[in-house]
UniProtKB/TrEMBL annotation:
Any GO MF annotation of the entry: hydrolase activity, hydrolyzing O-glycosyl compounds
Cited Gene3D superfamilies: Glycosidases (3.20.20.80)
Classification of source organism: Bacteria, Bacillati, Actinomycetota, Actinomycetes, Glycomycetales
Signal peptide: 1-37
UniProt key word Disulfide bond: no
Organism: Glycomyces artemisiae
Transmembrane portions of the chain: none
UniProtKB keywords: Signal
UniProt name for this protein: Glycosyl hydrolase family 39
Length: 371
């Protein structure tokens, strides 16, 4: 299957019908513009990505209320996935025209209630599109190539249904796009899917701003193979990840921003400390900005402390954020604002009585918000 395959009459007819449906949706949709929407294009800002639990109605009532107050004080960019990470499968029956948007509606309601600016990550895929056939396999899977058109259709339907969403990230960390035979990313397959999604969404939402490739950058302290020239005291970036980024830049049919993510620590367990963390996020951002004028979005970023670290976790997070900012990034999205693991988060679990309380990271994220 070629990268830029010709889209046949079947697909043209499908999206023509979808365009009419979208036009109707857009005509009748009552969209509330968030009070802080004008700040969504700030030079640099830190927003959040919602996970499975996130100040939702099923938590303890007071905890949810307290968590929403915190959420209202950061951002305003708030990212939610199309499927997974708090959203159910919107297209469970491949033979049905019905869609199940209820869980996604609830997340959009949460974003509106906290005066957020919604972002949607167009991931993941209904099981019937994937190799395993399962909605929730052990590892997330990409749609099979024969279902790329259907996934593009679903993405366009979501964009039409939620006209308040301005920003769309296509897929997440190349999930399901690893080529075992070549021992590298299947960046050709990802870019093919991206281009189909881009065209489909733009057809129904010309105003949408769409970004990729959302590669997760790996690095090593002791690099033995696939070593790149992007390196520093923090380690060496994996050339295969850089190849995926450059291929997408050369072959994407269009984009309004560039997406990436990384950890401060290396794959072989090295933690570079605050200075190395700052340098890593700055260096990677500068590597990207040297190759494209697209705004750089850090879709995820992690700066965990090790047992040997003398710096606090907050100091490491600050180093990562300031490194991204000084490297020229536009946006950084904090993964999972509700505490669900040992990773940095903004409020304690709302499922617990007395939850929804701010963590030590709240003042830092507020400092870099665009509220």
């Amino acid at each position: 299957m070629t990268l830029h395959r010709v889209i046949g009459a079947r697909r043209r007819g499908r999206f023509a019908m979808l365009g009419l449906a979208a036009a109707s949706l857009l005509a009748v949709a009552a969209v509330t513009v968030p009070a802080h929407a004008e700040n969504a294009d700030a030079a640099f800002q830190v927003g959040v990505t919602h996970e499975r639990l996130s100040a939702d109605w099923w938590g303890e009532e007071q905890a949810v209320e307290d968590a929403r107050e915190i959420l209202s004080s950061v951002g305003p960019l708030q990212n939610q996935h199309l499927m997974g990470f708090g959203a159910e499968n919107p297209w469970p029956d491949p033979d049905s025209s019905a869609r199940e948007w209820g869980s996604l509606d609830e997340r959009m309601d949460l974003i509106e209630a906290t005066e957020g600016v919604p972002v949607m990550t167009l991931c993941c895929a209904p099981g019937w599109m994937t190799p395993s056939g399962e909605d929730w396999p052990e590892h997330y899977e990409a749609p099979q190539p024969e279902f790329y058109d259907e996934y593009a259709q679903l993405s366009a339907e979501a964009a039409a249904k939620y006209p308040q969403v301005k920003y769309f990230q296509v897929w997440n960390e190349f999930k399901g796009f690893w080529n075992d035979d070549l021992n590298r990313w299947d960046y050709e397959g990802y870019t093919e899917l991206y281009n189909l999604v881009y065209a489909a969404v733009k057809e129904v939402r010309p105003d949408a701003l769409i970004g990729g490739p959302y590669v997760s950058l790996n690095s090593f302290q002791d690099c033995a193979h696939d070593c790149s020239d992007l390196q520093g005291a923090w380690g060496t970036a994996d050339q295969r990840d850089l190849d995926a980024m450059e291929y997408w830049l050369a072959n994407a049919d269009g984009a309004e921003f560039f997406t990436v993510d990384a950890w401060s620590s290396t794959n072989d367990g090295y933690h570079p400390g605050t200075a190395g963390t700052y340098e890593k996020f700055r260096d990677v951002t500068e590597w990207i900005t040297a190759r494209t004028d697209l705004p750089v979005w850090w879709s995820e970023f992690y700066a965990p402390a090790s047992a040997a670290d003398e710096s606090s976790s907050v100091a490491l997070m600050r180093a990562a954020i300031e490194g991204m900012r000084d490297g020229g990034a536009a946006v950084a999205l904090l993964w999972s604002p509700e505490c669900q693991s040992e990773l940095p988060c903004l409020w304690t679990p709302t499922s617990e009585e007395g939850g929804g309380q701010p963590t030590e990271y709240v003042p830092l994220i507020q400092e870099f918000s665009a509220r």
